[in-house]
Amino acid sequence: MSAIDRVRILVLGDSGVGKTSFVHLAAHNEPLRSPSWTVGSSVEVKLHEYKEGMKEQKTFFVEFWDIGGSHSHRNARSVFYNPCHGAILVHDLTNGKSEKNLHKWVREIGKNSRERKSSTSLNILSNSPGIGIDIEFDQESYIGNTSTIPYLVIGTKVDQSDDRKTRSESVATSLGCDEIVMDCRQTRYLAAGTSNAVKLSRFYDRAIETRAKSHKDSFTERFGDPISPTLSTKFYSPHQD
Ligand SMILES: Nc1nc2c(ncn2[C@@H]2O[C@H](COP(=O)(O)OP(=O)(O)OP(=O)(O)O)[C@@H](O)[C@H]2O)c(=O)[nH]1
Ligand SMILES: [Mg+2]
């Protein structure tokens, strides 16, 4: 039997927003009654069918790397960031600051990615109502990551929030990704067939494609592109008429 491939998803956001609660629900299909504060990171795994029902269908392990959000542990977190095939950004709908802070988490991914090049300052998310933020960050790695890894934004504690749509959509819109608004203590928010379940499944599929692409890129880096003109000429021209 062949081994099942794994895809690695980072779950990021401020302390107390509900990352561990979300991951538990997504991985076990049942709510976590009394989560404790995550120190460092914890990993949960679930099986996912890539492109279910299609001829490309294949089973993968999705690894959720649930990173403790405490500010005091930020320096120790970098060890968890590589490799990263996708990121779930979690904020608490009752705490607007946790949404604004998502830009810091995106920046942490950028800072800890492999490629570090020129530094610059850009105004990211500035088109979003209420979250115009100037950020000093590593432009190449930020852009590299935003363009190469998929994101999903989760707004938690919808059961306690009145102000749902405008806040939760803005970061997701800026990143060009889907969003899910939910109560992490209720199974029905991720039930099979719901639009949330479809968004999650689509996100896992994108992460799997990102992983496949990064594997192909590192192969190409080491051995060259197997279908590049150079290789074609070298290996096939002697057999041509
Ligand atoms: N009402 C409500 N409470 C929630 C929801 N999600 C999480 N909680 C509660 O919020 C608290 C913090 O949740 P955690 O899942 O531990 O948060 P975390 O983001 O993992 O926090 P750190 O591990 O410190 O980074 C817990 O008491 C959860 O039960 C939700 O959707 N609604
Ligand atoms: Mg936690």
TrEMBL record:
Keywords: GTP-binding, Nucleotide-binding. It comes from the Eukaryota. SMART domains: RAB. The keyword Thylakoid does not apply. Pfam families: Roc. GO terms for molecular function: GTP binding. It comes from Phyllotreta striolata (Striped flea beetle). This is Rab-like protein 3.
